[in-house]
């Protein structure tokens, strides 16, 4: 069985919608972060696939993918620092309960 572009795009679309669904339905800040990471990984799959099938032998899509991974890593570090700071101040990481920031 040969794997075509549509297979990768279906996986990427499923990942994107799972990330969107998780972002809008979850209350935990860590779950929101994981949902955003899922959406970023879906776009990285698209970059790599379109590079492979539209521009074979070239590396532009792979560079965009590496750039996306670097952005995801930086975003994760900043988000974890924010979550730790919120937890230290409020003692809660649920978004519904974070209404009054002590400070």
UniProtKB/TrEMBL annotation:
Reported EC number(s) for this entry are 7.1.1.-
Q: What function does this protein fulfil?
A: NDH-1 shuttles electrons from NADH, via FMN and iron-sulfur (Fe-S) centers, to quinones in the respiratory chain. The immediate electron acceptor for the enzyme in this species is believed to be a menaquinone. Couples the redox reaction to proton translocation (for every two electrons transferred, four hydrogen ions are translocated across the cytoplasmic membrane), and thus conserves the redox energy in a proton gradient.
| Residues spanning the membrane | 6-24, 29-50, 62-84
| Location of the protein in the cell | Cell membrane; Membrane
Database matches in Pfam families: Oxidored_q2
Taxonomic superkingdom? Bacteria
Q: How does it sit in the membrane?
A: Multi-pass membrane protein
Q: Which organism is it from?
A: Phocaeicola intestinalis
Note the InterPro entries from the entry.
Answer: NADH_UbQ_OxRdtase_chain4L/K, NUOK/Mnh_C1-like
Q: What protein name is recorded for this chain?
A: NADH-quinone oxidoreductase subunit K
């Amino acid at each position: 069985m040969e794997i075509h572009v549509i297979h990768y795009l279906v996986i990427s679309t499923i990942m994107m919608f799972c990330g969107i669904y998780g972002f809008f339905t979850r209350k935990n800040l860590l779950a929101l972060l994981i949902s955003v990471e899922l959406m970023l990984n879906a776009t990285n799959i698209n970059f790599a696939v379109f590079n492979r099938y539209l521009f074979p032998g070239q590396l532009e899509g792979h560079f965009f993918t590496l750039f996306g991974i670097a952005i995801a890593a930086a975003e994760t570090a900043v988000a974890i620092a924010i979550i730790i700071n919120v937890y230290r101040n409020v003692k809660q990481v649920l978004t519904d309960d974070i209404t009054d920031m002590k400070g």
